[in-house]
Design brief:
The chain contains twelve helices and ten strands. It is an alpha/beta fold and 348 residues long. The protein has a single domain, classed as Alpha-Beta Barrel (TIM Barrel). α2 runs parallel beside α10, α8 crosses α9 and α8 runs antiparallel to α11. 44% of the residues are buried.
Length: 348
């Protein structure tokens, strides 16, 4: 297993972590993801630790808290061997304060996660979505108190816009409060929006990407090709949010064609190639992989220990390139006076 620093912090993490969204299977949304029980989760944790994958990601809303409970039981007796990453923000009750970044909700969310996980500290705690109603001073002050109390180690965010993240970082610097060192973000070969604003921001400010849905909601598993529509599962779910952003069929097929070609050259699977491409992108500290069973987990673990060649990366870059949104298409034309912190995406 390869290890990297989490952003510009001194904390080192494996390049892969295991997501626990498949643990529990509570509710229509999470049942479509999986229903891993304690016994299977314990086996998956053991396989991960044997491979050097020591980081496990969860959230308080996954299966109504059941995912954290199952993870806590699966790592029992192994707490000193693992890194726990979890998240909070979304509604956890019916009350008006049971949601968001308020001191009231964040404090109780962390306390609840600690109880479900069966631990007295969380290594990385991330805000799961943006709350525009709570002042950043209150949010960061609350997180600072939780860090001082030893309840959490490092802080991060997820699903923030660039200006949301920069405003939080500026506030932290101004007031001497803990900075976000991680940005849990969607990024894949068919979802490269992260590259235009959040990646340069991360490079400039020392915020590491922790990538979720690296296979684009299952579209990059190799099971979907021309003439082969998606089987029953997440992409055919009635729950709209579970399908992810729409992707044009021809664009997807073009990317999968390139993945197929590179997979044939490397002797690796399509998902392994897609994951390895991400591991070579600037600012990426960690990629979260999911697994319904041990076989899928071992397949994902095969994404590390080797690297695509520059030519293979270029092939995938070109196949997945899209026209950048304004103002980035304009800025690219004047890179001599406006050099980005990281190279402009290939194919742009």
């Amino acid at each position: 297993m390869e290890y990297r620093r989490l952003g510009r912090s001194g904390f080192t993490v494996p390049v892969l972590s295991l997501g626990t969204g498949t643990f529990g299977g509570g509710g229509e949304l999470f049942k479509a993801w999986g229903a891993t029980d304690v016994a299977e989760a314990t086996r998956l944790v053991d396989v991960c630790l044997d491979a050097g994958l020591t980081m496990f990601d969860s959230a308080d809303v996954y299966s109504g808290g059941a995912a954290e409970e199952i993870l806590g039981k699966a790592i029992k007796g192994k707490r000193d061997q693992v890194i726990i990453s979890t998240k909070g923000t979304f509604r956890s009750g019916k009350g008006p304060n049971d949601v968001g970044f308020s001191r009231h909700h964040l404090t109780r969310a962390v306390e609840g996660s600690l109880k479900r996980l069966g631990t007295d500290y969380i290594d990385l705690y991330q805000l799961h979505g943006y709350d525009a109603l709570t002042p950043p001073e209150e949010v960061l002050g609350t997180l600072a108190d939780l860090v001082s109390a030893g309840m959490i180690g490092y802080v991060g965010c997820s699903n923030f816009s660039g200006w949301h993240l920069m405003k939080a970082l500026a506030t932290a610097d101004q007031l001497g409060l803990p900075r976000f060192v991680a940005n849990q973000t969607y990024y894949s070969l068919i979802g490269r929006d992260y590259e235009w604003e959040l990646m340069p921001l991360g490079a400039d400010q020392g915020v590491g990407a922790v990538v979720w849905s690296p296979l684009g909601w299952g579209r990059l598993t190799g099971k979907i090709r021309r003439g082969s529509p998606p089987a029953a599962g997440r992409l055919t779910s009635k729950v709209a949010v579970d399908k992810g952003p729409p992707v044009a069929d021809e664009y997807l097929y073009k990317v999968v064609d390139a993945l197929d070609a590179v997979a044939a050259e490397t002797g690796k699977t399509v998902p392994q190639v897609a994951l390895n491409w991400l591991l070579q992108r600037p600012t990426v500290s960690n990629v979260i992989v999911g697994a319904r069973n041990e076989e899928q987990l071992k397949q994902n673990l095969g994404a590390v220990g080797w690297n695509l060649t520059p030519e293979q990366v270029a092939t995938l870059d070109a196949a997945s390139a899209v026209t950048p949104p304004y103002p980035y298409w304009h800025q690219i034309q004047f890179a001599d006076r406006n050099p980005p912190p990281v190279p402009w995406p290939k194919g742009a």
